[in-house]
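Weekly structure sync - notes
Attendees: PM, LS, DV (DV joined late)
Agenda: review two folding runs queued last week.

Item 1: First target. Sequence and structure tokens pasted below for the record.
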Amino acid sequence: MKDVLDELAAARRTMGTGMLPAGDAYTIELRRHYDASVDDVWSAITDPERLGRWLKPVTGDLRLGGSFELDGGEHGEILACDPPGRLRVSWLFGPEADEWPGTSEVEVLLSPSPAGGTEFELVHAAAVAEPMFPTYGPGAGGVGWDLHLLMLAGFFADGESLDHERFRTTPEGHDFVRRSAAAWGDAHLAAGGDPDRVAAAVAATSAFYAPGGTE
């Protein structure tokens, strides 16, 4: 597997706007290339056994219109499934989130790259009123997705994946989290974020994902 910071640099991060059933949303968008076929990447994001090796173990009625639940508590419904190029799900965390349906969705788009391999795009839309954004900014979800896509890169490289929860406790993991939070801060600034609020959000996100490792 390449150096983890090379993997961090391989992704392009932007922040935008969108619409959800619950209303106006902000989006965090990740785009990167994987040296794997579209079919292979599609299998990695939809096959339960493979998904559990880089994301989290998943259970549920895994078909269009069905529901899913990850081992960490993330859950939702499968809203669109167009093999092998598009998957869209609602994305809620914790039982209280069910009181606010339509507030968070994740969409993954895959396309073949002219140079070989797959262009991977992930868009996570969250309602502007969701409570974590004022404190953490786009890094609230962005750092987590950076960690998971790092695990996916490892899975494609050697069939194995780091435990991202354990990785976050290492000096290398602390550095990765800090750099990821800073990269999402840059995306937030580019989208018009207030510099002082962005700086505070980057610090809060770093401390959340790597407590004790931000000195």
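Item 2: Second target, run right after the first with the same settings.
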Amino acid sequence: MSAEAKPKLLWLQSITCNGNTHSFFNHYDLFSILSHFELLYHPVLETEYTLEEVIKGKVPCDVLILEGSFREEGFVKSGVEVISFVETYAKKAKFIISAGTCATFGGVFKQHDPDAITGFCFDGEEPGKRYKRYASKLISLPGCPIHPKWLSYVLMMIANKRHIPLDEMHRPQELYGITVHTGCVRNEYFEWKIDTKGFGLKEGCLFYEQGCQGPYTRGSCNKILWNDVSSKTVAGMPCFGCTEPDFPKTTLFETKTNMGIPATMPLGVPRRAYLTATGVSKSFRIKRLEERIIDYGREKTD
């Protein structure tokens, strides 16, 4: 690829709901971002090549975006196993981006057949059979769906030939180096153990009584807001942990506790430190916060 040439981009889908495509298409600067690439194929957009031409394996590829989970056999397009032509382009590509939790870890579709369905390089949190082969090219972007700005960040870093620091699961540290709990507007309520009493309410923490997974989930949803204005917790709904390898969990809206203490500590928090902080916070009564919960409840009732 010459210095002047745009990177050649292919977006291939396997077992998917199209959620990541639709999310990215909501980016307000979509076509400006894509203008930095030569988009050769996308299953929704009108592009230079058809799927039948792509399947033949002759299309050039610098950046490969994968959407959807994978199985070794039994998922066919135009008479060809999807995994076979995807691997053809994975070998050619300089970068492989797994867009979404399905492509990264297996996601929702893995629940249907846990032994056969995986992400492209990861099987849940464990490296899969293709990991060693493609790890040097891999950028993981889990999310259900991904935030459009997460993908635009990666694409613009590639277009500008910038290094992207990654964690052990190949997630960009800029996007996944914090938890969803970071920046949550309800953090003061979390610190003082004051929970909301329902969904859609603007006051109170969602952790203990509503099962918010924000303290366990890596992602920048409360740092890079959706549509620049909101997130699940801003809207009064608990985080479901959709960027994590174990998503979707079988029990939602519940935080398991032992004698009022979470069975699993928030990421990076030692149990002893959490118990100490909890003991201190429970010894105080924060009237100001409690009154806000009561006042908002009255407001909703009225």
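Discussion on item 2: The first strand starts at residue 8 and ends at 13.
Action: LS to circulate a short write-up before next sync.
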